[in-house]
Write a structure and sequence with these properties.
Blueprint lengths: L84 H11 L4 H7 L5 E7 L24 H19 L4 E5 L11 E5 L19 H11 L1 H4 L4 E8 L4 E4 L4 E4 L1 H14 L3 E7 L4 H13 L3 E5 L1 H16 L6 H10 L4 H6 L13
Parallel strand pairs: 1-2, 1-4, 4-7, 7-8
Antiparallel strand pairs: 2-3, 5-6
Length: about 350
């Protein structure tokens, strides 16, 4: 203790003194090599690495050029110009040898909306006609096969003649095999050919199918366009009665429904394509064809040919009825009264000059 009453520590700081510890000299440089400069600690910048040296490989010798081909170069692909409706119609008329007077009548279909309704019920597996209508040794097709044959040229003709593509309806359809009940916007038979490569089954709900067609074309029927419906079937319409729990004949109700449509829509035309030779099954169609101006009937080709030659053979010559006349009748029988009169089932004095 000194004279002032305090302790002397001989130059050392007293305990609990706030004097800081002596400062150490700064750290030496991080690198003494000038080729690799140093960076402060915790820096994310990496030190530059030395350039890598890759081994030098000998250059490969060049391959000799391929010998020039002696063949001429392929011609440049040129897209064929799209044919007009007039050109397609001329090809169609030439293929089927359609007469000029009929060709003028066919132009009526230009402003028609055309719909096809095909019967694919179980009865369509039966023969389309009997042996008396077949050639010797000819295989008689089923009604469904005959429907496909009838549909091909008629549908292709409609696609050419109408400004709009056609719509296709099947009475039953087969979703398992990719055949829906409705297919719209069809422009050729090739688009629906696969739908006929199956076994038809089910009932004949002609009324329900036709009701769907009318419902889907209400705007057209109430407008200025005409609607032409082709119904390819083998006879009487049927439906399932849930109360009787059985399939019932709808012929009477079908006649009443057609009568209602003909009175309600003046721009509706219906053509029945009968793919069967049984007169009993054709009776309903023929009756409606005679009763209504806008309803026509065309039989299977072999049946139609035999009937036309038998009835008009003495007046127009034997075998005068051929494929082009059959196609003309099928397309126009419900649309053109002159054609309907010219190909009437009962002989009449024809005042037209089409034949």
């Amino acid at each position: 203790m000194n004279q002032y009453g305090s302790y002397s520590y001989q130059g050392q700081p007293p305990p609990n003194s706030c004097q800081l510890a002596p400062q150490f000299p700064p750290n030496p440089p991080y690198s003494s090599n000038p080729a690799y400069p140093s960076y402060p600690p915790n820096s994310c910048q990496l030190a530059p690495s030395a350039p890598q040296q890759y081994p030098q490989y000998p250059q490969q010798p060049a391959y000799p050029p391929y010998p020039q081909s002696t063949y001429p170069p392929p011609p440049m692909y040129q897209q064929q110009p799209k044919k007009t409706k007039e050109e397609l119609f001329q090809e169609f008329a030439t293929k089927f040898e359609i007469r000029n007077n009929f060709a003028q009548q066919l132009s009526l279909l230009k402003k028609f909306k055309i719909v096809f309704l095909y019967d694919d019920s179980g009865s369509m597996t039966e023969p389309a006609y009997t042996a008396e209508f077949a050639s010797p040794g000819q295989r008689i097709p089923s009604r469904f096969e005959e429907t496909a044959t009838m549909a091909k040229d008629i549908l292709d003709g409609c696609c050419i003649l109408s400004d709009d593509p056609v719509d296709i309806y099947f009475m039953n359809g087969d979703s398992v095999r990719g055949c829906d009940k409705v297919k719209t916007g069809v422009r050729s038979f090739s688009e629906i050919q696969y739908m006929f490569e199956r076994i038809p089954q089910g009932i004949t709900p002609t009324i329900a199918s036709l009701e769907q067609i009318i419902a889907n074309n209400q705007l057209m029927l109430h407008g200025e366009r005409n609607l032409l419906v082709f119904i390819a079937t083998d006879g009487a319409p049927t439906s399932y009665d849930p109360y009787q729990r059985q399939v019932v004949d709808d012929t009477k109700r079908f006649k009443a429904y057609i009568d209602k449509l003909m009175k309600q829509y003046k721009n509706l035309y219906i053509t029945f394509m009968a793919c069967v030779s049984d007169e009993t099954l054709l009776e309903t169609m023929d009756e409606m064809g005679e009763k209504y101006t806008n309803v026509g009937v065309v039989d299977e080709y072999n049946v139609e040919k035999k009937e036309m030659n038998d009835r008009y053979g003495n007046q127009r010559g034997r075998d005068w009825f051929n494929t082009n006349l059959y196609l003309t009748k099928a397309l126009l029988v419900s649309v053109c009264p002159q054609v309907k009169q010219a190909f009437a089932d009962t002989p009449k004095k024809c005042c037209c000059t089409l034949l």
